[in-house]
Fold:
Amino acid sequence: MAAAIANPSVSIQDLSLNFGVMSVLKTLNLDVAEGEFIVLLGPSGCGKSTLLNCIAGLLDISEGRIFIKGKNVTWEEPKDRGIGMVFQSYALYPQMTVEKNLSFGLRVAGVPKDEIAKRIARAAEILQIEPLLQRKPSALSGGQRQRVAIGRALVRDVDVFLFDEPLSNLDAKLRSELRVEIKLLHRRLQNTMIYVTHDQIEAMTLADRIAVMKGGVIQQLDAPQTIYNRPVNRFVAGFLGSPA
Ligand code: ADP
Ligand code: MG
Structure:
């Protein structure tokens, strides 16, 4: 058992989620340290997206509590949780320019105009999307769209980013390019990231710690090397462990 994390950025306590009679998340516990990059890794259907959606507040949980930066957010609206989320499908507004896509949520939230402009300029610089700001999403490549989607989380100026398979719709070359960029983004921002994937390479290269999930349960939570060298059971070994 790993030592408890003092002042976790995200703390998930005894979280259960049922869809009807189906138990999808089973008394799950997870503490994420400030600035940590956690990857939720597991096969399709194991509950990764469901867990992320619970943290984001997009699903009501059946039991348990969720804390973000020490605050109990279990029953808070998504917008009040201090998180930014990036989905697999870019979820951009097709009729708006990139700039409008980035500013829309901020305008709704009543952020002053000059502050919005400042945040967009910073995000555009970090993600290298300055030349795209006046384009519509339909005029962008898949990789560019996903950058804009990340930008939309970035301008919200939050401490915790949630990513749900952000690279799965991209081809292999773009996937590895954006993987590197996400890593650099994390180095630069030093924020907390919870990143869902079923891709072992993404998990091994991005994570400070990997939570390997199966059937709504975290099987092992450890640094990539530890999981690779000392998988706790056959499932983890088969999914990610060393061939020995
Ligand atoms: P993953 O993201 O790991 O592929 P999900 O979290 O999407 O898995 O799904 C976990 C389980 O919950 C699956 O068995 C899925 O069929 C089920 N599930 C997901 N969303 C719903 C829903 N809205 N209603 C009923 N069952 C759902
Ligand atoms: Mg999923």
Observations:
- The mean pLDDT is 93.
- The first strand starts at residue 10 and ends at 19.
- The beta strands are 10-19, 22-32, 37-41, 63-68, 71-72, 83-86, 160-164, 192-197, 209-214, 217-222.
